[in-house]
Write a structure and sequence with these properties.
The complex is a heterodimer of chains A (about 110) and B (about 120). Chain A has about 110 residues and is mostly beta strands. In chain A, about 0% of the residues lie in helices and about 50% in strands. Chain A starts with a strand and ends with a strand. In chain B, a hairpin with a 6-residue loop joins strand 5 and strand 6. Classes of the chains: A mainly beta (about 110), B mainly beta (about 120). At the A-B interface, strand 4, strand 5, strand 9 and strand 10 of A face strand 5, strand 6 and strand 11 of B.
Chain lengths: ~110, ~120
């Protein structure tokens, strides 16, 4: 197992364009999380999946953001009509459903909106 | 709502010396977990150490140990015999326990940037 994988690592887009990021969690992990990290801040929770069900969404997740995990494996995060304020590192993490297990993070996708 | 505060934006330590990073948190829950994560430049975040709130004994992982003061809601990280590879951003994080209906998401502080001088 190679850990949590995210693609792409970097994305530069023009304001108003749509972007989609992919996260492949550790294979036996049924929990998957998306976080956003801006410069000088800690990661902030965006949304959470248990298997294919999206069970929680932060108020940070505006209606321009949508996330899916169609078969309970990989997940996608789409941002529509990107704004400069969307520029950030988007982190994916996965964990087992067992309560005392840690979350493993991917390397993140750095989005720059110009 | 739970909050995590790291009051030291930057810290510096001489190689082989000891450094302590501070973290305080606020919660009304009794069942929770605390973590320290390390984020090296351009690399993924990795877990350094974990503490279950119900355990009185401070967690230790090799050169890393915590001072968990539950009543004071303080959770500091001590790095002994600092190495150049310890240079990174360090994030303190909180997670509610299962009894609180936790979905497992983490609440992070703003981080402390640790520099190690050779």
């Amino acid at each position: 197992d190679t850990g949590v994988s995210q693609d792409p690592r970097h994305k530069i887009t023009k304001r108003g364009q749509n972007v989609t990021f992919r996260c492949d969690p550790i294979s036996e992990h049924n929990r998957l999380y998306w976080y956003r990290q801006t410069l000088g801040q800690g990661p902030e929770f965006l949304t959470y999946f248990q298997n294919e069900a999206q069970l929680e969404k932060s108020r940070l997740l505006s209606d321009r953001f949508s996330a899916e995990r169609p078969k309970g494996s990989f997940s996608t995060l789409e941002i529509q009509r990107t704004e400069q304020g969307d520029s950030a590192m988007y982190l994916c993490a996965s964990s087992s459903h067992r309560s005392n297990t840690e979350a493993f993070f991917g390397q993140g996708t750095r989005l720059t909106v110009v | 709502a739970q909050t995590v505060t790291q009051s030291q934006p930057e810290m510096s330590v001489q190689e082989a010396e000891t450094v302590t990073l501070s973290c305080t948190y606020d919660t009304s829950e009794s069942d929770y977990y605390l973590f320290w994560y390390k984020q090296p430049p351009s690399r993924q975040m990795i877990l350094v150490i974990r503490q279950e709130a119900y355990k009185q004994q401070n967690a230790t992982e090799n050169r890393f140990s915590v001072n968990f003061q539950k009543a004071a809601k303080s959770f500091s990280l001590k790095i002994s015999d600092s190495q150049l590879g310890d240079a990174a951003m360090y994030f303190c994080a909180y997670r509610s326990g299962v009894r609180g209906g936790s979905q497992g998401n983490l609440i992070f502080g703003k981080g402390t940037k640790l520099s190690v001088k050779p």
